[in-house]
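Dear support,

I submitted the protein below through the web form. The confirmation email said the job was done, but the results page showed an empty box. After a refresh the structure appeared. I'm attaching both so you can tell me whether what I see now is the final result or a partial one.
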Amino acid sequence: MNHITVSAIAAMAQNRVIGKDNNLPWRIPGDLAHYKRTTMGKPLVMGRKSYEALGKPLPGRTNIVVSRALKIKPPHDTEHFAMMESVLSDPTAPHKDQFLIAQTLEDAIEGAKKIAQADGVDEIFINGGGQIYRAAMPYVERLYLTLIHRDYDGDTTFPEIAWNEWDERSCEDLPDNDPPYTIKVLERRRGHDT
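What the results page shows now:
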């Protein structure tokens, strides 16, 4: 099996806020376009609250929800749900444009990697929220961070980043936007691997 990179993608304010009341506290069309472009065709791993905020699967991507509470398909929406076990037994089965339910983060990452391999992509994404980011950071090899140059009020934060463990691969400053922001891609330094 080829190496599948575990990446995390997030937008965060200067004070590390990433969410408020299960939503983004800002609307930045350029960052949303970056998010779509970067994640299209690749598996996304998210927590239950992020899934609830979406309401429906993000198109063109496999959406994997980590939740012990969602042990069965929700009765109101059987079309958009499948259990991870069914995909692990056959990662080539159709799975885009639906939610897959995984009981643990480890199962979600393992399943996402198998799906990525079957789909011919070399990367999976940790897609939030705060608890999933914190739990997944030991696995993350690459960070796609949109750094918003403003503080926001919120109830969910991105975990502290040990900047000395990461090398900057790219940086795009967008100072003329409202709010101004920077998109960075960081790679975990060798020796800080999990």
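Response: this is the final, complete result; the empty box was a page-load delay. The longest strand covers residues 5-13.
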